[in-house]
Amino acid sequence: MTGERGRALVRVEGLTKTFGPTAALAGVDLTIHAGEVVAVVGHNGSGKSTLVKVLAGLHSLDAGQVVAGATELRFIHQDLGLVGSLSTVENLALGIGGRPWRRLRKADERREARELVRRFGVEVDVDAPIEGLSPAERTIVAIARALRGWDDRREVVLVLDEPTASLHGAEVDQLMAVVRRVADHGAGVLFISHRLDEVLDVADTIVALRNGRVVGDLPRDDADYKLLVELVAGQAVEDLERGSGDRGEPVLEVRDLAGGGIRQLGVTVHAGEVVGLAGILGSGRDEVCAAVFGGSVRTAGVITVGGREISDIRDSIRSGVAFVPGDRHRHGAVMSMTAVENLVSVLVPGTASLWRRVRRGQEMREATEWFKACGVLPARPQMELTQFSGGNQQKVVLAKWLRTKPKVLLLEEPTQGVDIGARAAIHGLVMEAAREGAAVLVASSETKELAQLCDRVLVLAGGVVVDELSGADLTESQILHASVPAQAVTEPSAPTRGSHLYDVMPS
């Protein structure tokens, strides 16, 4: 780390917050110094989000204090706080003070907006509604807004709550460079992330929360990935029990698939095999599973399951295809329904009529069994799905499809936004499905995840497969390396000294 720690900007002392009988935070202490990046890690439900909301003034304290003095806190929350119907220019202007009678100069506003987002290596139409931007672009706009005006403000703390949840590859590297640059010039940063590799890359100090309590507060140099996993999970997380490596007959066959960002793709997945899809944002990686399932328009291609051609979602389900989409809130579940209602919302092919009589007791027993098998907590199937943590919501969505005993399991970002414990549990469920004979196709932006889970990985760029990795070549570094040529063409390169990125703070 290059930054030098200065005086304390924010001190959290004995922070306690309860909701009914649950202690979300219990006696939490931490200090953020000038020039320091403090990373907070923990399970979903460990107290990270409550800590952010207390600092933001959204929750009152039950006990303890937050001492900030004249320090200004700026926040980037998980929902980004952007207005989808407004443009980038208008979103950047939200919350900016000034003289109410000052004449607005639209040309100046547009120019400043373009310069702000260019610092992060992207070009967007700053006059278009922001809802039309990609998740990564929206995140970058939120970051640019938070950093606006920091050139002449040093006594600040930037609070980043899961800022890279929708960023991948070079975009993550760009944000990490900005975070370090801001700290190196005297700001404090509170960085909250599920991605432990990111924490180890950027943090000076790491604070681990479990059940609302601090279970670790240590310098980055004293931490490694294994230790953080043990602190977060409360125990060592076992390595995945991989299959024998023997694959069965071909189950899923995709030939000449095209549509959306997919130009031409072919892949065969065998029984018991896990095949990964890698590639940068916009490579077509995120569109394959939906296209195979029938959830998006296909302009060409033939897809067969067990030799039988499928053409739409109904065909897919009847043929034993399961699909866990990347956005569970919009496409994977009905958040206002209970967990048990979500679990039984897909009929097991060939076992029941659409007009069957609903047996509530049977559904609850089945839900209880699946909750136990998948480690869903709290074990209360009658609770509304919104009341569960992100990791437990994802387990319910996965269990909904696993109960159909699928022949093909399609997964998009299966562990995005979940903690290390839920990640290990989900990986275990996927591997168990493969051992039972399912053909698994998984699209992920996480190279570690693909290297851990997959027997083969296909690297996409521009809607076509540009490389295939297996055996000894299937490593995180090789997946990244295989993506570099395509990344250099389709995305801005990683920042270097002298680029606009480093103009966020004065030299």
Summarize the structure.
The protein is α/β, with parallel strands linked by helices and 507 residues long.
CATH C-level category of the largest domain:
Alpha Beta
Helix amount: 25-40%
User: Taking all residues together, what is the mean pLDDT?
Assistant: 84
Q: In total, how many domains does the architecture comprise? A: 2
User: What Rg do the Cα atoms give?
Assistant: 24 Å
Distance between the termini: 17 Å
Number of helices: 16
CATH architecture of the largest domain, by name, is: 3-Layer(aba) Sandwich
CATH names the topology of the largest domain as Rossmann fold
**Structural class estimated from helices and strands:** alpha/beta
Number of strands: 19
CATH superfamily of the largest domain: P-loop containing nucleotide triphosphate hydrolases
Poorly predicted spans: 98-103, 485-507
Produce the secondary structure layout:
Layout: E1 8-19, E2 22-33, E3 37-42, H1 48-55, E4 63-67, E5 72-76, H2 88-93, H3 106-118, H4 135-147, E6 156-161, H5 170-184, E7 188-192, H6 196-202, E8 205-210, E9 213-219, H7 225-233, E10 250-259, E11 262-270, E12 274-278, H8 288-293, E13 300-305, E14 308-309, H9 313-318, E15 321-324, H10 328-332, H11 339-343, H12 360-374, H13 390-402, E16 408-412, H14 420-435, E17 439-443, H15 447-453, E18 456-461, E19 464-470, H16 476-490
Parallel strand pairs: 3-7, 3-8, 5-6, 6-7, 12-17, 12-18, 15-16, 16-17
Antiparallel strand pairs: 1-2, 1-4, 8-9, 10-11, 10-13, 13-14, 18-19
Helix pairs in contact: 13-14, 15-16
